[in-house]
Amino acid sequence: MSRGQNQLFKISIGKTEMFLEKLNQLDLTVAFDQLTPRKREVLKKMLAGQSDQAIAKSLHITEATVRKHVQQLCEKFELRNAPGEHYSLRNQLIDLFSEYHPNLVNPELLSKYRSFLVPPMPESEGQQKPVPLNADFYVKRIPYEDQLLEAIVKPGALIRIKAPQQMGKTSVIEQVLAEIRKEGYQAVTLSFDLADSTVYRDLGKFSRWFCARVGQHLGLSNKLNEYWDDIFGCNSNTTDYFQEYLLPEIKSNIVLVIDKVDRVFEHPVIADDFCRLLRGWYDIARRGDRSSAIWKKLRLVIVHSTEIYGSLDINHSPLANVGLEIELPEFSTEQVQELVRRYGLNGNPRQVEELMAMVGGHPYLLRKGLAYIKYHQITLAQLLEVAPTEAGPFSDHLRRHLGNLKQSPELETALEKVVQAHSWVTIPSEQAFKLYSMGLVKLQGNSVMPRCDLYHKYFCDRLWQRLEPEC
After folding, report:
1. Is 7-134 assigned to CATH 1.10.10.10?
2. With 0-12 CB in 10 A as exposed, 13-18 as middle and 19+ as buried, what is 287?
3. Across the strands, what pairs with 163?
4. Could you tell me which of 68, 69, 93 has the C-alpha nearest to residue 80?
5. Which residue of 161, 168, 192, 457 could cross-link 263, Cys pair, CB 3.0 to 4.6 Å?
6. Rounded Cα distance, 278 and 276, in Å
7. CA dist 203 → 223, 242, 257 (Å)
8. What pTM was estimated for this model as a whole?
9. Does 6 score more than 50 pLDDT?
10. Handedness of CA 22, 24, 25, 31 (dihedral sign)
11. For residues 416 and 392, is the Cβ–Cβ distance under 8 A?
12. How confident is the model over 305-336, as pLDDT tens digits?
C-alpha cells in the first residue's frame, strides 16, 4: 500500500510518546474489503462497543482468540508498534474508523475516543508532506450534490442514491449532510454493514435491530418492549415505534441515511418487506391525513451499490419508481483535470486522455492511480504499464470483480465475448444490464464494450483460456 499520504497518531504511555502512521481512507477501504467474515464480525462488534467477553460469547470463541483477532486487525490496518514496543493499539483502531467511517462506530465510543491525529510535520527536503485529513481530494459532483440538497429539504422526501462500488456515494452524502446540519437538521447514517450475519436470517430480528440502531444514533434509549406486539407483524411494529416514539422525541427535522442497503437485497424475504416498509412511510408522508405531519419530519436517503444487480432478478426491483433516484456517473474530463491539479501533478490534456483511457472517470481508480504516481514518484507511462497487472495499484479492485464474475458463469461468458470483440458488441439485454450495473461495461444503444482499458486488458488476460488468440 502507498504510505506517503498517511497521517500520524500520537499516543502517550506514561511519560513516553510515540508516533504511528495512520492509514488513509482509500487504503482503509481496500483493507476492510479484504477482511475474512470472522474478522469483520469481530471488528463490527468491537466498534459497536462490545467487550471482549461479550464478543467471545456471541461468536463461541475464547477471549484470547478475540484479542488475537484485534491484534491482527490492527496489523491489517497498518497499526504496528515500533520494534521492541508492545502497546495496545485498540484505541487507535477505533479512532481510525471514527475518522473515516463514524457510521460503523457506537456513538458512545465516538465521544470516548478522541482523535490522536497530530498536525502535519513541516516538509523538509526529501520528505513527503502528509496530506491533511480535511483536505482530501474531493471534487464537487455537479449537479448531483445540488439535486440531493434540493430534494432532501422537502417534507417526507425519499432519495435513492445508487452506483457501482467505490464511485463516491458516501463522499457525496457526507458533503450534503455537512450542509444540512448547518440548517438545524439532525442527520444520522446507519450502515447495514454493521449488522451481524445473524440479523439477516429473521425479519423480526432485523426489524428490532433496525429500530434499536436508529434510536441509538438519535441518542434515544431502547423502548422496543413497550411498543412491540408480535401480533401486528414487523412492519406495523416498526412503523409504530417510529411514529409514536422516535419521531416525536426529536424536535427537528431528521435525515436518515441508510447505507449499504444492497446487504438487504441479498436476502429477498427481508428485502421485500423492508422495501415495502420504506415505500409505506413515503406514502404516509404524502397522504395529507392525520399521520402525515409526523412523517414529514423524516427524510430518507437510501444508498446502495448496483453491483448486487448481477445476482438479482432485474425484472423485480423492490424500490423502483419510489422518490427521487440519483445514479452517480463517472467523473467528466473537467473533473479529472481538477483532480489531477489537486494532487499537485502537471497533467497536460494528452496525459489526462491517456489516464482516462486506462481507468475511465472512475473516482476510486483515479485517486488510487494519482496517489500511486505522486507518492511512488513514477511517471504516467509507468503506471499504465503496471495498471492491469497483479503488481499494480488496482489489483484488489480487479480481483474483487473477477471473484464476482466467477460466481456467475453466464456473466463471465458474456464478458469474455465483450473483451474479445475489441469494439461495440451486442449481448443479451439482461447480461448487458448486469455487467453495466457492476460497472464493467458502458452502453450505447443495445451494444456494450469494456468501460475502460484496465478492464479490457485485465479480463482479456484472466479469461484467456476461453478467448480467441487475438485477445
Report:
1. yes
2. exposed
3. 305
4. 93
5. 192
6. 5
7. 19, 17, 20
8. 0.72
9. no
10. negative
11. no
12. 988 875 555 556 667 788 999 999 999 999 99
Span 364-397, pLDDT tens digits: 999 999 988 988 889 999 999 999 999 899 998 9
Cβ atoms 303, 161 nearer than 8 A = yes
Pairing, β 158-163 against β 298-305: parallel
Could you give the C-alpha distances from 310 to 140, 202, 238, 343, in angstroms and in order?
Answer: 29, 24, 30, 34
Q: Which helix (H) or strand (E) holds 136?
A: none
Query: CB under 8 Å to 350, separation ≥6 — which residues?
Result: none
If DSSP codes are grouped into helix, strand and coil, which group holds residue 298? Answer: strand
Coil, helix or strand at residue 449 = strand
The answer to whether 380 and 373 have CB atoms below 8 angstroms apart is yes
Type of residue found at 319:
L
Cβ contact 337:290 at 8 Å: no
CA-CA distances (angstroms) from residue 195 to 44, 80, 144, 186, 287? 8, 28, 29, 23, 32
Q: What is the CATH number of domain 144-327?
A: 3.40.50.300
Q: What percentage of the chain has pLDDT greater than the value 90?
A: 53
Distances (CA, A) of 224 to 50, 147, 237, 250, 278: 20, 36, 9, 17, 19
Residue carrying the nine cell digits 435513492: 160
Phi-psi sector, 35: left (phi>0), alpha (psi -120 to 50), beta: beta
- Domains of the chain, by residue range, sit at 7-134, 144-327, 333-387, 396-466
Taking residue 243's Cβ as centre, other Cβ atoms within 10 Å add up to 17
Side chain identity at residue 372, one-letter code: Y
Give ∠ CA 204-207-208 in degrees, rounded to 5. 85
**Beta carbons of 235 and 277 less than 8 angstroms apart:** yes
Phi, psi for 304 (deg, rounded to 5):
-155, 155
